Amino acid sequence: MSKNDISKINIKGGLTMLEKQSLPSAPILIESIRSIGYSFETAIADLIDNSISANATKIEILVIPNDEPYIIIFDNGNGLDKRELEEAMRLGSKNPNDIRKENDLGRFGLGLKSASLSQCRDLTVVSKKNGILSAFSWNLDYVIEHNTWSILEYTNEEIMKLENIELFENVTNGTYVLLKKFDKIQASTLEINKTITEKMNSTIDHLSLVFHRYIEDGLSIYVNNRKIEARDPFLLKNKATQARRTQEIKIGESIITVKPYILPHYNKLTEEDLKKVGGKEDLRKNQGFYIYRNKRLIIWGTWFRLSRQDELTKLARIMVEIPNSLDDVWGIDIKKSTANIPDIIKKNLYSCIEEAIFTSKEVYKYRGRKENNSEKLNYVWDRIKTRDGYEYKINRNLPQIQLLCQNFDKKLLVEFERLLKNIENSFPTNTVYLDVADGKINNNVEITKEEIEELILAFEDSIDKCKELGLDIMEYYEQIIKTEPYCNDESLKELMEEKIKEYE
After folding, report:
1. Which option is the CATH number for 242-365: 2.60.120, 3.30.230, 1.20.120, 1.10.10?
2. Count of C-beta atoms within a 10 Å radius of residue 171
3. What confidence tens digit (pLDDT) does each residue in 77-94 have?
4. From CA 263, how far away is CA 266, in angstroms rounded?
5. H-run or E-run covering 222
6. Tell me: the pLDDT tens digits for 211-234?
7. What CA–CA distances, in Å, run from 385 to 283, 297, 380, 431?
8. Pairing of strands 132-139, 152-153
9. Neighbour count for residue 222 (Cβ, 10 Å)
10. Does pTM top 0.90 for this prediction?
């Protein structure tokens, strides 16, 4: 044992212990850190977190394609002086157990380095504070070659040679992150510029969702001068979105806020609304909890095994707001892309889930019908509760059916009843369910002019038949005007009112 292997002697539990330094290999460990599991989207989002924590109001992302493509993330935040920047570049620069400011989106002191180096081999950070520039770099090739935990400091002259450094010209404070040498992307494609562009397009969509509350509050994020618009998954600007009761759950001194929302039926969604919720095809997979940490979306589109995804519950969204003081309780990881609901609050969430699921199903259950049937409308199909659930029967009290039966003898009545039962027994329940859930059936289709004319002719024929049989015409009219489809179209009802006046 050499002298340099021994730091000091400790006495522990009555035992004499030798304390030795066991330093990790810089090349091996830093390559391991690169494999934490960041995607391109989550890596860029992690860098945006730093800008937000620095109180930036504007963030510019530049994606520059060339023989050696590079990406710059520039913000107008507080900036760092030389000492602060050097500390920020150190791996593990923060204790995850330290109490942090409420708006701090970091935790482990690794995000800047781990996120950047997961995508590239050369990370340079330039920061300006009170008009003074400083810059440091992590160059993985240098680390491997020299087997050292060393960052490289730029001189003022070298700083001015960096790509797009003119971004600092009009700001007193700000930070610039330069990513170069995208080795992992390079190894996976023959067209690196095209691949990076595609990844950034996907990242724009990711950022618009993850940071939508910050964007709504005034934060500007640009990608190559294109402003990112907020993508609100709750469609709060749509008047048909239903907000349910807010719950507050206390853990120690920290408060968790839970609020369910029910999206409108897809027939009430605009094209812009559908884009925000991921389109009709993604409605189902995006249902469930949306976990926010300091307004930053962490994880979404999951019930955490507290419920299951269902076609009729896909309109349910539950917003959960947690403070950064509960990161350890929720199991927030370095990438800020996973979380787990703590057992201590699961019981509190069940009532929220039940209410959200019930309301989501009600939207489908009563779609196309008035929930309050105080007018005693005559629906074509009756929903009948049975011991095993529900079944649907054709309403035998429809005035059209009653009038038709007046013309039948006993034999035809029997045959007609058989026909109705045949239709009922052949009702394609499963197919209709899937088509409605997938948005392939539109219950809001307006009645065409030709269809209105046909219905009016049918109404006139029915009135003539009532006269022929000696039936009360007004009584028949009062019944049929409350029957589908007549009761669903105001213009049709007005035409019927005009026609019935001719018979008074």
Report:
1. 3.30.230
2. 16
3. 999 999 999 999 988 655
4. 8
5. strand 220-223
6. 999 999 999 999 999 999 999 999
7. 29, 42, 16, 21
8. antiparallel
9. 14
10. no
